[in-house]
Amino acid sequence: MTREVFIAGIGSTVFGVHKGTSPVALASQAAQQALAEARCAPDQIGALYLGNFVSGVLNGQEVLAGLVGDRIGLGPVPCTKVEGACASGGIAFRHAYLAVAHGLCDAAIAVGVETMTHAATPQVTSALNCALDPGDDVMAGLTFPGLFGLIWNAHAARYGTTREQVAAIVTKNKANGARNPLAQMGGQIGLDEIVQAPLIADPLRRHDCSPISDGAAAVVLTSEALARRAGVEPIRVLASAQCRGTPYVGGHGDLTSFGATVAAANRAYADAGISARDLSFVELHDCFSIAEIADSEDLGIVPRGQGGRWALEGRTAVGGEMPINPSGGLLAKGHPVGATGLGQVYESVLQLRGQHPNQVAGARTAATHNLGGTGVVCVVNILQRSGA
Amino acid sequence: MTTIIECASCGRLSLRDAGPCPACGAAKVTAKQAADRGVLVSWTVIRRPPKNSTETGPYTVAVVRLGDGPTVCGRIKNAEFAGPVGVALDLRAIENGVPVFEPARTVR
Hints:
- The structure holds two protein chains of two kinds.
- Chain A has 15 helices and eleven strands.
- Chain A is an alpha/beta fold.
- Chain A has a domain at 5-119 and 212-227: 3-Layer(aba) Sandwich (Peroxisomal Thiolase, Chain A, domain 1), CATH 3.40.47.10.
- In chain A, strand 10 and strand 11 (377-385) form a beta hairpin.
- In chain A, helix 8 (163-178) packs across helix 12.
- The longest helix of chain A is centred in the last third of the chain and has 17 residues, at 337-353.
- Chain A is globular.
């Protein structure tokens, strides 16, 4: 038997450039903010899970979980780093959820952090390539922009998805980012500017790619009794599902879809007892513009093949029938990889409390979607207003 | 036809004529035959290679379905290939473990 789990507090740094700030300092800042909101003393926390992907490669620094636990004054409790490429933060959230749901402790904290901007772009590309399967993909010279270039061309060939439709994702998410004070970037950007930017991996151009970012986010998960004592409206976790997909490109039966997303979404909807149409909005893993199209179709919030058309028609904008990434998403808010999954939860909680700077009217139920590697891992969480 | 290997340990099918398995490193593999003509599943031109690459780009990475055989990730000889998806490709060589394809020139 499991029990209900609530989000009692959230914290986040700005996503962007934090040159000279260590990952431990950034993570601790977010964690302390989450603890303060939850009115949770450090000695009430029974476990810490930390999501991080490339600190070892880019900073030469590991054991971040224990270092952060020490910095924020936790007791001698288990502090564990989890890694699943860009889904590391989502995995940390799920483990903290499981610890409370199964009664291992009454309060757990999930923290995600990454510092990347001090490194040159080719160095970051190499570090992220650690998430590729060691077989053909690496040997052929694939990169992550390259993977999504493959997905774009496959999607365009099958469904007729156009450059203009994919650009609509960029325009929407950069406009949303401009309304989010935690976002790395945002503003008005149109088709002309998007198609004039340099190619990165055909057909992806610069604005189709999420930026390189520093940042941290944290979430305190508690039992219902502890959540009622928090200083903020508790948000109910209806489900937290994690699934594995194929680790290599040739293993994808269909390059326009990630099997791990489909599996995690189906599991999360079943566990939550809802369907995709019950969602008020979604924060999903738009590491590249085309990813938002594939993800939205895999999550079942947009009909198969119509992700691009829906974006161009404004149906996924704030105020549309299925708002996607009101935070600005990874494209504008930024993508500090180990923090991203928890950043999505942070943004969704603010929406469900009715306190987001880019508020979706009447937000009641949300999904977050965090994808790692070439689709080898996916976490989907379903969150709901506790009064709903 | 071309030779592919099936890994006895992880089961991966790879386009090469001998072990070890490029995915898991296992030495024990079984050689099989597969078509050397395939269909282009998708392609991209990499213009920003990773730091550990010896290449500066651009180069074309392609996903190719080999007849009834495996789907493999390799290269197309044209560095700035422009599609389309679905075109027939012939395996020309395996260079440093990487299958290299070219658009099929003749109908067989």
